[in-house]
Amino acid sequence: MAHGAPDYSGMKVDVVSRPEWAAKEATDKNFLGTATTQARLGSATVIYAVTSDEALYITQLACAIYATAAADADLNQMGSMRVYDATDGVALFVQGVNGGAGIPFNKSLVIPTGHTVWIQAYNLSNHNCELVISAGGYEK
Questions:
Q1: What is the signed CA dihedral for 25, 26, 28, 34, rounded to 10 degrees?
Q2: Separation between Cα atoms, residue 100 and residue 132, nearest integer Å
Q3: What is the model's pLDDT at position 140?
Q4: 10 Å Cβ neighbour count for 95?
Q5: Positive or negative, the Cα torsion across 96, 101, 106, 110?
Q6: Could you give the CA distance from residue 20 to residue 43 in angstroms, rounded to a whole number?
Q7: d(Cα 97, Cα 128) in Å, to the nearest integer?
Q8: For each of the chain's 140 residues, which pLDDT tens digit applies?
């Protein structure tokens, strides 16, 4: 019975994506921001300055928006999430949501060295909401 790699060398190689490798090496970046009792246009914001000699690659983004008051729980929980390069003044991603959303990016959002990124969830409802924003990625 054969053992090892297909060529019988005993050598094995795995091909993994950069995000998987960053998680394995514990060099991945995970961000979480929360805000309670936010009125219309209130936000939960994570601010991160890329200060190393590497760029930040954001590979996933998610948010949750839910009513603060139980009486408003059956209403639409309208909002948006965005990734904003505050150094260049450019929105890299904006998505409207109702209650929340999550998205993996096939093409990472890139924040260059020396730039500051804002990762935000906004309440666009006519009632107070709780907000959660999260993002993940790595620096390279």
A1: 160
A2: 9
A3: 87
A4: 13
A5: positive
A6: 30
A7: 16
A8: 455 555 566 666 667 676 777 767 767 899 999 999 999 999 999 999 998 799 999 999 999 999 999 999 999 999 999 999 999 999 999 999 999 999 999 999 999 999 999 999 999 999 999 999 999 999 98
Rounded distance between C-alpha atoms, residue 105 and residue 6, angstroms = 34
| Residue 51 confidence (pLDDT) | 84
Separation between Cα atoms, residue 130 and residue 42, nearest integer Å: 9
Q: Show the tokens assigned to 42.
A: 């209130």
Question: What fold does the segment set 29-139 form as a domain?
Answer: Jelly Rolls (2.60.120)
3 phi and psi, to 5 degrees?
A: -130, 160
Structure tokens belonging to residue 80:
């948006």
How far does CA 62 lie from the centroid of its chain? 6
For the chain, the structural domain boundaries read 29-139
- What tokens does 103 get? 């998205």
